Amino acid sequence: MQHIPLNNTQLQLLVDGEQGLLFCHQRNTLHKLEPAGIALLLVMDAGVDKQQCIAQITNLSRQSVEDIESLYWLLSGLYHARFDADVDANLPPSNNEPLRQYRDSLYFEIAKRNAFRTDRCLASPQAKENCPEPELLWIRIAGLVFRLCCKHQRLRTELEQIFKPVSFLATDVAGCAEFAFEIKIGKHAPAISDAPDSESLQFEFYSQGKLIATELKFNQVAPVLIERIQILTYQASGFRFCFHGAALSENRKLLLLPGKSGAGKSTLTAYLAKRGFAVHSDEMIAFNDKFDALTIAMPIAIKRGAWAPLENEYPQLKHQPVWQLKDGRDVKYVWPDDDISQDTSTTFYSDCDSVYFIAPDFTTSTQLKSQAMPKEPVHSRQLTVIEMLELLIRGGYQVGHELSASDVKDLTNFMDSADRDVLSYCSSEQAFQYVKKILAEK
Amino acid sequence: MNNNKKANDAVDNDELTPEQARRQFIKKYGKLAAVTPLAVTALMTPKTSAAPKSCRPNQQNKHCPPESNGF
Question: Which domain of life is it from (chain A) (predicted)?
């Protein structure tokens, strides 16, 4: 990445090949610029007036005056830190909406915790009173204790099975928790809670006494609960950035598998876990200030299409209950290693010598055959820092505090020092062989 | 950054004054603009920073319905 100094000290411009990153200090926002935007910004920054800016770039680019003028207005909004510019999230401007801050997207449990520094023993004591010990489940992840109250016996038994490697007795955690959850049967449910047709019941999910999800079917409860725990865990960790993806390591090498849901991250993670890789997280790549990755000991969610291919690695898949994500996909949960208790202390993995971003792009062999252009079964492409950053962000991301120029600089430097590839493949074995080869090269 | 080294070489000259370097950047990127999109893309803003979830609105994921709010 090359830094281009600007006269406007409220902006920071970095270029990487043909593309640029523009950080706006006043708005705490980061934007991607294409070549026309970079050129136009530099002319604007030299103090040239609007007409001349447009004329100069139109001349060089041979694009239409109207197109360059539209671009000028967008950039002018950023350049002069006008908050009405419609470049925020590419959404139409809303004049009545209050300005958001990054901290606004932290979950309410975290905001409350940060504000009051609540002692874990004081977290929602009323829930403890309402729920006798046999109906409680105590879970410890990354040094945090979650207390779950569930009066529905069958559901509680199923949840106990899922969380077995990270479950504790109340006495192990001194009967105190940072977060108190409760799963209740919905108000309009049949009177007998343990009726054989549990599937017809609807459940409500409360966190710290507040209703956060309703009308959940029996088989939708675990995915909601697991997602809430994962998110609260990284948000409570003092994270700097979090991206959607998996984090693994092997021999002091950190392997990050970012991307959108459905790209093949979890299946590949489960496959690599049986081939010597330690799994730090299946869903969230959370970094601290030093870009160490947070370990969130949770089961891996295996989607329906991967149950058969992973049966050799995880024979227990055959007998696991089926859960359903809100989007309708069926999943089963497996732990990378069922035989051992998971490390439940606060851990950021700091022991690595090198970092690899590999964005999985799984294609079934049927899909491959149906594509018009022939494609290699395994194909990798190196990405620039900006391309990988965009891929990470599109998969889902969160910034832990108000974004600063040093955050952007440190993140791009970190990514610059890492390997960055997108990997297309048809089977986990192919991806494993590729990963093994790449990791052995350094 | 091997991919990008070539692109940056055109203006990697220590002997240029800042003004000359700026002019060279403008020329280089202005010409590239003939064959690249005219876009400014918001990457990180307070509006888009949110807990990563399996399904998010407008994620354009084949597995996620467009109206999904992922809770």
Answer: Bacteria
A-chain residues within 8 Å CB-CB of B68? 326-327
Q: Does B59 fall in a domain?
A: no
By mean pLDDT, which of A74-83, A233-242, A362-371 is the weakest? A362-371
Same domain, A67 and A161: no
> How far apart, in Å, do the first and last CA atoms of chain A sit?
22
Percent residues over pLDDT 90 in chain A: 70
Which of A37, A53, A88 is the last residue in one of the domains? Answer: A88
Q: Are residues A214 and A251 in the same domain?
A: no
What value does the mean pLDDT of chain A take?
87
Chain A residue nearest residue B45, CA to CA: A29
- Test B29 with A42 for CB contact under 8 angstroms: yes
The answer to whether B51 contacts chain A (CB < 8 Å) is yes
Residue B28 sits in which domain range?
Answer: 2-35
pLDDT of residue B1: 41
Task: Assess contact for A313 and A327: CB atoms under 8 A.
Answer: no
* Same domain as A80, residue A16: yes
What gap in Å lies between CA A106 and CA B51, rounded to an integer? Answer: 8
B71 vs A397: CB contact, 8 Å cut-off? Answer: no
B-chain CB neighbours of A412 within 8 Å are none
The partner residue sitting opposite B51, judged by closest CB among A60, A62, A105, is: A105
pLDDT, residue B4, reads: 46
Residue B13 resides in a domain: yes
| Residue B11 falls inside a structural domain | yes
Longest dimension (CA), chain B: 57
Q: Quick one: pLDDT band at residue A90, thresholds 50, 70, 90?
A: very low
Which domain range does residue A19 map to? 2-88
Do the Cβ atoms of A382 and B3 come closer than 8 Å?
A: yes
Strand (E) positions, chain B? 40-44
Of A88, A122, A140, which residue is a domain's last?
A: A88
For an interface test with B, give the residue of A181, A260, A302, A420 to mutate (most B CBs within 10 A). Answer: A260
For residue A440, what are the contacts with CB-CB under 8 A and spacing of at least 6? none
For residues A274 and A403, membership in a common domain is answered with yes
What average pLDDT does range A172-196 have in this prediction? Answer: 74
% of residues, chain A, pLDDT over 70: 85
Q: Which two tokens stand for residue A282?
A: 């299946």
Per-residue pLDDT of chain B (71 residues; tens, 9 = 90+): 444 444 455 455 567 788 888 999 999 999 999 999 999 999 999 999 999 986 655 545 444 544 444 33
Same domain, A135 and A191: yes
pLDDT tens across A30-42, in order? 999 999 999 999 9
Q: How many CB atoms lie within 10 A of CB A162?
A: 23
Residue A98: phi and psi, rounded to 5, are -70, 150
For chain A, the domain total comes to: 3
